[in-house]
Amino acid sequence: MTARKSGFVVGAIAGAGVACAALAGVGMRMGTAAAEAPVARPSMTGAPTFAPPPGAPMSFADIFEKVSPAVVQINVTSKASPQGLRIPGLEGFDIVPRGQKGKPGQDGEDGDSPATPKQQSAGSGFFISADGYIVTNNHVVADADDIQVVMKDGRELKATLVGRDEGTDLAVVKVIDPKAKGADFPYVNFENQAKPRVGDWVITIGNPFGLGGTATAGIISAYGRDLGDNTSSFVNYIQIDAPINRGNSGGPSFDIYGRVIGVNSAIYSPSGGSVGIGFAIPADIAEATAKQLISGGKVVRGYIGVTIQDFSAESAEALGLKDVKGAIVAELVPGGPAAKAGLLPDDILTGVNGVTIANRSELTREVAKARPGESIKMSIIRDGKPRVIDVKSGTRPAENALGLNDDDQDQDGGAAPTPDKPVSQKVDALGLTLGPIDPASRQTYKIDSEIKGLLITGVKGDSDAGEKGLAKGDVLANINGAAVNSVVDVNNAVASAKKAGRNSVLVKVIRQNRPVFVPLKIAP
Fold this sequence. Notes:
By secondary structure, the chain is mostly beta strands. It has three domains: 1-28 and 59-81 and 117-298, Thrombin, subunit H (Beta Barrel); 302-402, Roll (Pdz3 Domain); 425-521, PDZ domain (Pdz3 Domain, Roll), CATH 2.30.42.10. Helix content is 13%, strand content 34%. It is built from nine helices and 31 strands. Strands 25, 26, 27, 28, 29, 30 and 31 form a seven-stranded antiparallel β-sheet that branches. The protein is globular and about 85 Å long. The relative contact order is 0.13.
């Protein structure tokens, strides 16, 4: 996850190694007495030592000892994205698909993904049950082909993905290794009731940068942080200053009693390293999400089908609605629940099921709580007058299916329009599926109007094209110097090469409006 804010980067912190503590410990309760100056004490060396202020723990060692066995490192093996590949001779040019948020080269007409090299990554997680369920971040395991869990005692156990949720960046995996059959895993619990105050201690345990078993401590810095990304519609983040770094993703933050208060997910940094500003998903959200993932493998959310914006104070003043807060309807999804219920553009949404909302994120969270088919009471203001409209909730599509981008990521179910797929044909000799470049494709993949050729709509996984990083959205401009405007042209060029005794062709591919030449083997 990456979002820009005031020159800083909010970045997901999965990486080289990770793990953070869980809970189930004991510790000294932080008192409420005012801080006092340190008290000098005599020491064995004769030099003065200083006692901590009243209420501060003397040490977190007891907590670490109790909770650390429940924390694991999660090692993930996945296919390397062509984003990280280089075409020989063009080492300075990234192979990145235009207009796509998924992995390059996937989702082709033939349903294949390119046979790219494997890559290793790591994240953190923690047991939440004795039978092996582990909570981590979605971005840690989203592309995993193989998941290995490393225990504190060094045991490596195979695990499988139970479910993941892009909306909160949470996932659940489960140990399935035969070596662990019948094992009673150490686990920790979420704290949803005794919520720490801003200024209370927070502790993490993890393996940043693969260092392993690293404990850090700090305080709760703030609640209710909005990171400006697609998860913020469902998560009011906790801000903490306990140092967390790349590799800490998916590990818990916990209080001085060893109870999980959050799951570390992101940092706020100008450089990518810790500057003392980290963000954790609150325990109540993490627990509720984990329960849904364990019970059904996915999270089901309510959906009304509207595009919304914050109703600002300036907007309220302009309409003579002083002190009114909420969200304003910009568009309705045709045939969606809101449209069917009679909601209209320009309606101001101020409450959901009796809960007052102040902005679009709060509206989205409240709507998401509804079960599909339930009636949602929407408090609105229309033409300056309040009223209530009942909307029958639908099922919110997956976040990637909504086509969220920087301009519409805070919509509640406002799906971005997707272009009709051009008619495509396979060219088995090159492992490609090709189609014409229509206006919708040009807009989707940002292809300049003067670029001619055929759009690559699919790449066969075990083809040379797949291995060399060709991807959906690329444009095949010519083969062996001859322009291609149809699949017939491609087949003719391949036939000519084979007739000449050659087993490969040189194709010119346009990506990000730049030409790239790639030699491709002709399949038998």
